[in-house]
TrEMBL record:
InterPro entries: DUF1828 (IPR014960), DUF1829 (IPR014961). This is Lj965 prophage protein. Residues 33-121 form the DUF1828 domain. Residues 159-249 form the DUF1829 domain. It comes from the Bacteria. Pfam families: DUF1828, DUF1829.
Length: 257
């Protein structure tokens, strides 16, 4: 028996249509879609009449507001990700509202574009630091640069062993302070701290031959999602490496300025 896909699709569209609800508001209509966001709430689209032919669709700022309410900080990196999502969609970001406008005949396409964009922006819920390691590094780098901690990101240095290493952030020497090497760790395990210790020591043995002073070594760690073991702290302390929790941003700024 041949599968009647056309019939199945028709049944799906009937089901989908019946799942939509419309709520009349004072100045607009609220479309409650059957699609849900990352926290299980139905996605809403608001329809405003511009004139007899034109309409405006909006999420009323709910999408980006939900990110903030769920602990997703809108860093420079995440804002750039949102901008990339909007490119080519026809959707605009106006005071954190996602909007799109058009004429009546374009409603299906415009509504679909807005819904797709809302879903894609909502996917940023999955970019928590405990899911994407690189994002933590980008967040820390953005934070340092936005707060005028002048330095170089991802600079390469040679150790006394001849091996080359990448340091996440390097702050140049000042009159009263040697240069500073900072490594970022999303999950600072005992293994990670011993690896960073080896890197710092290898470079520290070589660096005085080049600049005259040993660098200061520090680690910025994600302590909100991962606890640091006492063993890791003891290793860092024994090697004179200060661990700065990224959650304590005031301490980071006071230490690095």
């Amino acid at each position: 028996m041949k599968l009647d896909t056309t019939l199945l699709l028709s049944q799906y569209l009937d089901w989908l249509k019946n799942k939509y609800r419309i709520k009349n508001l004072e100045d607009s209509n609220q479309i409650i879609t059957p699609f849900t966001n990352a926290i299980g709430d139905n996605i809403n689209i608001y329809v405003d009449k511009i004139d007899e032919k034109h309409f405006l669709l909006s999420d009323d700022g709910e999408t980006i507001n939900d990110l903030s309410l769920n602990g997703i900080e809108l860093t420079t990196t995440r804002n750039q990700m949102i901008d990339r999502i909007l490119i080519g969609s026809g959707v605009h970001r106006v005071d954190d509202e996602l909007t799109i406008d058009g004429v009546s005949s374009e409603f299906p396409e415009k509504k679909h574009s807005l819904l797709q964009t809302i879903l894609r922006v909502n996917d940023l819920m999955m970019t928590r630091r405990n899911n994407i390691v690189n994002l933590f590094s980008e967040e820390v780098t953005d934070f340092l640069k936005e707060n005028d901690i002048i330095g170089t990101s991802k600079a390469k240095f040679a150790g006394i062993s001849g091996l080359n290493y990448t340091i996440d952030y390097t702050i140049p020497a000042r009159k009263n302070r040697p240069e500073m090497f900072i490594q970022f760790h999303n999950h600072l395990t005992f293994s990670a701290i011993t690896n960073s210790t080896f890197i710092f020591e290898d470079i520290n043995e070589q660096r005085p031959l080049e600049v005259g002073d040993k660098p200061i070594n520090k680690i910025i760690a994600n302590t909100e999602d991962y606890a640091i073991s006492d063993k890791a702290f003891r290793v860092a302390e024994s090697k004179n490496i200060e661990i700065l929790p990224f959650s304590d941003k005031n301490k980071i700024l006071a230490t690095l300025h």
